[in-house]
Amino acid sequence: MVRFDHLAIDVCDRAVARDWYVSVLGLEVEFEIDATGVTAVRDDHEFTIFLVERADARPECGLTFQVDDVDAFHAALARRGIAFERPPQVNVWGYGAELRDPDGHLVMRWDERSMKAHEREAAQPPT
To answer: Are residues 8 and 43 in the same domain?
Structure first.
């Protein structure tokens, strides 16, 4: 068996990144090691992201998270004043919303229902 278990990303300020991933994306802190500058946050399925503090951190990856309802997710965060790069819409990768974390990493959100509806629409011949 092979299963993707964790990912490390560089961040400029662990506290800022930790607070954003917890308050905006709903992840939970798994552990923090101040001596090595690492904070681990994880999702409901125990996938862990290591937030590694580095002064020269650059956004070098995109993160994609599945949610129950991407439109509801967007509406809830928009009410809190969270800025989105793109609201829920058809993107190159399918239907979903995009925002950026405090370090500029692209964070994409999608849901299975909307993605399947988009795929059905795209498969229908034009009238």
So the answer is: yes
Extract the tokens encoding 77: 């965060």
The upper half-sphere exposure of residue 110, i.e. CA atoms within 13 Å in the direction of its Cβ, equals: 19
pLDDT digits (tens, 9 = 90+) for 21-55: 999 999 999 999 999 999 999 999 999 999 999 99
CB-neighbour burial class of residue 124 (10 A; exposed 0-12, middle 13-18, buried 19+): exposed
User: What is the token pair recorded at 73?
Assistant: 């997710």
**Count of other CB atoms within 10 angstroms of residue 19:** 13
pLDDT for residue 54: 95
**How many CB atoms within 10 Å of residue 88?**
21
Q: 53 and 68: one domain?
A: no
For the chain, what is the domain count?
2
